[in-house]
Structures are given as structure tokens and as C-alpha cells.
Design a protein that fits this description.
Blueprint: H1 6-9, H2 18-31, H3 43-57, H4 60-69, H5 94-107, E1 127-133, H6 135-140, E2 142-153, E3 169-170, E4 179-184, E5 187-192, E6 201-202, E7 215-226, E8 235-238, E9 254-260, E10 267-269, E11 272-280, H7 281-286, E12 288-293, E13 299-304, E14 313-316, E15 332-339, H8 346-357, H9 364-381
The protein binds zinc ion (2 copies).
Main location: cytoplasm
GO biological process, one term: response to heat
Keywords: Chaperone, Cytoplasm, DNA replication, Metal-binding, Repeat, Stress response, Zinc, Zinc-finger
């Protein structure tokens, strides 16, 4: 199924202002509100699309990315990467809670009168973990144990926040509505219930370990599988491994952001590896075999043809980096750099001078160059 254009979904023109985008979203969200769509089974899916579109277009950075690349801007990464409509998983009840988040944000107390009206248990935050790996590790993939400081469900109360895991009870002040009404003259004012802070439930005896939050701070050890072929900027999403939610809410996700260290010998370009190999002047002139390192820790013999010049490239097929999602392995390229000898002894100088005196057509590039230079000067004399 192809995705619909985000601007279309909000009913606004491309390049609409932030205000127009917000207005468009309000209109669509009101149309699709569950209270008005009891018999429209598609409303939920439509709302999710609209919400996703708004999530992207309200954020200047995401909007710029979308304007430039379209939906492709949000498709990279492992396991799908962060969804633009983050926080709306597939579980039951997510729709309603996503709705209440959106509406609390947009309309504030305006929506307070709708049925229930109380806040859902909040979803835990997403976490980001930066992981540096070496190029060798990126080549082979690795299993890594990482320690993530996070909050986890309280084991004492099983996340309920109540002593001994008891169920919270309905708030007596608001009868579970999360809001209380007060009459002031002609007006009825509705405000968040002061007893339960809008949750609609209270805990008679808060858990002593987590003080009623239902979660505690903890460093958690996770074993992560980093696939072969990761690059700097690759994101790996571990669904449900983020922070625990408040009072039994769903957990967030954990995103591992990969950074691959520079390597002393190899330079990487996507799946290609480049390696500059210095060779002695005599080896380059006479030709011969050299041994070059490969990223898997092995070595490859490479034949240097006699008369090789600096900059000559040779390809070693399949000795590069693996592609992240299958699709084979790249090649490795070596580039020769002919090294002029230094620190010559007098004997060596003597031999080189003798070699020079025997020179015939040994430097065709120089000869051609200086012939051209001579012609140039001649032509200038006119
Ligand atoms: Zn607890
Ligand atoms: Zn209350």
C-alpha cells in the first residue's frame, strides 16, 4: 500500500504555514474523533495516518526532510527506525490514549467533558544509546552487552504503585473522572482533580520501594545483536526496551545509534574499502608480489606489475564490507604510493648516479611532458 501524501492527509497545500498545518490537523482530528465515529471502523486507521502526518509536518526538521525526500526520509535504519507517529503501537487502547495525548495537547480542558476524561497510564520514554564499534566489528557483526540506565517496572508492586501489588482504587473525589466541576456564578468550571492529579485512581498505601510511581531507576544489562554491515548513523530499534511506563503504562523503545570508529589502515566508502599501500621505488620498477591486509584479519597477495606508478589502483573482489541487509559484499581497492628512497648512503648514491647515466627511455611521462613544455616555449617566442 502506498502512503498518502502528508499534506493531502491534513487537507492543506504543500508549503502550508505552521498555523495552517495546525488548523488542518485540528479539523481532521475533530472529524475523526472516536465519539463521532462509533460506527466508522476506518476512523482509527485514518486518525493514525493524520496524526503521523501532523507529527512530521509540525516538526521543522522532519518537515524539511519530508519536503526533500518524501516518505523515504523516514524509512531507513534497522527495524523501521522511529515511526513518525511514535508512541502508537499496535496494542489495544493505544488509539484512545494517543487521542487523549493529542487532544490534551491541542484543546486542553475543552475535551475534558468527554467520557472518562482521565489520563491513561503514561507510556515510558524512548531511550537513545550511542554505541561505538570498530570497523572490524562492523565487518563481522557482534553480540554486545550494554548497560542502560533506565527505569524498570517496580518488582515490589508489579508496576501498580500500590503496596503489595494491590489494585488502585477509584478516586472518591472525582469518582474516577479525573476532573472536578465547580460552579462559579453562571459558569461551571472543570478542573483536574486535585486528589488524584487527573488519574482517576488513587493508591491507598503507596508502594514504599517506588513511592507509588510503579517504576524504579535501575541499570539494565541488555544483550544486543549488532548485524554485520552497520555504518555510522545506523539505528537499531529495540521495541519495548525503553523506559517503563508510569503505573503499568507501556514501555518506550530503545534506539541504538551506531558510530563506527575510523580505522588506521582502511578507509570505508559504503561497502567499499580503500587502502593506500606504499611500495618502494625498486619494487614498483621491477615488479613483484606484496602482501596486503584484509579487514577479516587475513592477508592477500597482490602482484605489482613492473613499472607501476603512484596512484595505480587494484581491486580485490569481495574483500570490502558486507551490505547491511544482505546483498553481498563490496570490493577492496588498494592504491599504490611509490616511495622515493631517503637517507641514502654514499654507495647507494653512487649506484643511482650510475643508473642515471645509463638512462634510456625510462621515464616516458617526463620526456613527453618536457617535449610539450619545449613546444610551448617555442610557440611563445613566436
Ligand atoms: Zn512499587
Ligand atoms: Zn480524582
Amino acid at each position: 500500500m502506498s502512503k498518502r501524501d502528508y499534506y493531502d492527509l491534513l487537507g492543506v497545500a504543500k508549503g502550508a504555514s505552521a498555523d495552517e498545518i495546525k488548523k488542518g490537523f485540528r479539523t481532521k482530528a475533530k472529524e475523526l474523533h472516536p465519539d463521532r465515529n462509533a460506527d466508522n471502523p476506518d476512523a482509527e486507521a485514518q486518525f493514525k495516518e493524520v496524526n503521523e502526518a501532523y507529527d512530521v509536518l509540525k516538526d521543522p526538521e522532519k518537515k524539511a526532510a519530508y519536503d526533500r525526500y518524501g516518505h523515504a526520509a523516514f524509512e531507513g535504519g534497522m527495524g523501521g527506525g522511529p515511526r513518525p507517529g511514535g508512541g502508537m503501537g499496535g496494542g489495544q487502547g493505544d488509539f484512545a490514549s494517543a487521542f487523549s495525548d493529542v487532544f490534551d495537547d491541542l484543546f486542553g480542558d475543552f475535551m475534558g467533558g468527554r467520557q472518562g476524561g482521565r489520563q491513561r497510564a503514561a507510556r515510558g520514554a524512548d531511550l537513545r544509546y550511542n554505541l561505538r564499534v570498530t570497523l572490524e566489528e562492523a565487518y563481522s557483526g557482534l553480540q554486545k552487552t550494554i548497560n542502560v540506565p533506565t527505569s524498570v517496572q517496580c518488582g515490589e508492586c508489579n508496576g501498580s504503585g500500590a503496596e503489595g501489588g494491590a489494585e488502585p482504587t477509584t478516586c472518591p473525589t472525582c469518582s474516577g473522572m479525573g476532573k472536578v466541576r465547580a460552579t462559579q456564578g453562571f459558569f461551571t468550571v472543570e478542573r483536574t482533580c486535585p486528589t488524584c492529579s487527573g488519574l482517576g485512581q488513587i493508591i491507598k498505601n503507596p508502594c514504599t520501594k517506588c513511592n507509588g510511581a510503579g517504576r524504579t531507576q535501575k541499570e539494565r544489562s541488555l544483550s544486543v545483536n549488532i548485524p554485520a554491515g552497520v555504518e555510522t548513523g545506523t539505528r537499531i530499534r529495540l521495541a519495548g526496551e525503553g523506559e517503563a511506563g508510569m503505573r503499568g503504562g507501556p514501555p518506550g523503545d530503545l534506539y541504538i545509534f551506531i558510530e563506527v570508529d575510523r580505522h588506521k589502515i582502511f578507509e570505508r566508502e559504503a561497502t567499499e574499502l580503500h587502502c593506500r599501500v606504499p611500495v618502494s621505488m625498486t619494487a614498483a620498477a621491477l615488479g613483484g608480489d606484496i602482501e596486503v591486509p584484509t579487514i577479516d584479519g587475513g592477508r592477500s597477495r597482490v602482484k605489482i606489475p613492473a613499472g607501476s606508478q603512484s596512484g595505480r589502483q587494484m581491486r580485490l573482489r569481495g574483500k570490502g564490507m558486507p551490505a547491511l541487509r544482505g546483498g553481498g559484499t563490496g570490493d577492496m581497492f588498494i592504491e599504490l604510493a611509490v616511495e622515493t628512497p631517503v637517507n641514502l648512503t654514499s654507495r647507494q648514491k653512487e649506484l643511482l648516479k650510475e643508473f642515471e647515466s645509463l638512462a634510456e627511455d625510462n621515464n616516458p611521462e617526463s620526456s613527453t611532458f618536457f617535449k610539450s613544455v619545449k613546444n610551448f616555449w617555442d610557440s611563445m617566442k613566436g
